[in-house]
Amino acid sequence: MSDFLQIIRxxxxxALDQKMGIEIIEASPQRLVGTMPVEGNTQPLGILxxxxxxxxxxxxxxxxxxxxxxxxxRIVGVDINATHHKSATIGKVTGVATAISLGKTMCSYEIVIxxxxxxxxxxxxxxxLILAERK
Length: 135
What we know:
The protein is of the alpha+beta class. It has helices at 3-11, 15-20, 50-69, and strands at residues 23-27, 31-37, 73-84, 92-102, 106-114, 120-133.
């Protein structure tokens, strides 16, 4: 297990990640992989809620930024957008976040979310701000 993944497991996931069933599979500042079940995260028509895609994307980008910034820095998301390409109705989706830019005060990631057939269902981009050291 990578040191980064161990840090995430020791700190625990956030309450929303737990409610959504998000599981982090791979984690480094450069690349993160996480899964999320469709069941329990659907909108009234039975398809994966678009907001659920955004939660998965923000979770991956925020974790990546925190890993890059280090444990003594605080991070906040400042921008996120998502394009929904295809619906998902069963199984789970997988998000792969790839760093676009890892700077001293700002990080950006592209997140590609796919269904179990490997079809792209959503593309998102997040930018996070790295704040001052924690006091």
